[in-house]
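Below sits the subject:
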Amino acid sequence: MTLIEWRDEFSLGIPSVDHEHKELIELINATHERLRHGARHADVEDFLGEMFARISAHFALEERTMLAQAYPEYWAHKGDHERLLDQLRDIMDDFEASDALDVDVLSTRLDDWFTIHFKTFDARLHQRIH
C-alpha cells in the first residue's frame, strides 16, 4: 500500500529539491510497507535512522536554497522542518524506550506533515522562486 502518492503540485521546479522530494516519498512508502509487514527491532531502528538522516539532509538542501534566494519566509519554513524532526526524534526515543512502534501513528504523521508542508510552505517557496 502506497502511503504518499507523488503529485505534480509537490514540485518546486528546482531539480535537485524535486528529485529529493521524490526520493523521500519513495523511502517513506518503502519504510511504511516494511513496517506494516513486521520488522525486527534492529530493522526498525535502521529504518527510522535512515529516514531521519535523509530527511535532515533534504531539509539542509532546501534551507540552503532558501538562503541563496533570500527567501523572506525562511524562518517559518525552517521552523516547520524542525517540528517534523522533533516529532521523528520523539518517535525514535519512544521506540528505543519501549520497543513499541505504532506504525499507523508514524505513517499518519508523515503523510499529514509532508502533504501539508508541500501544499503550504513548499508551494509558497515555489511561487517565490518562479
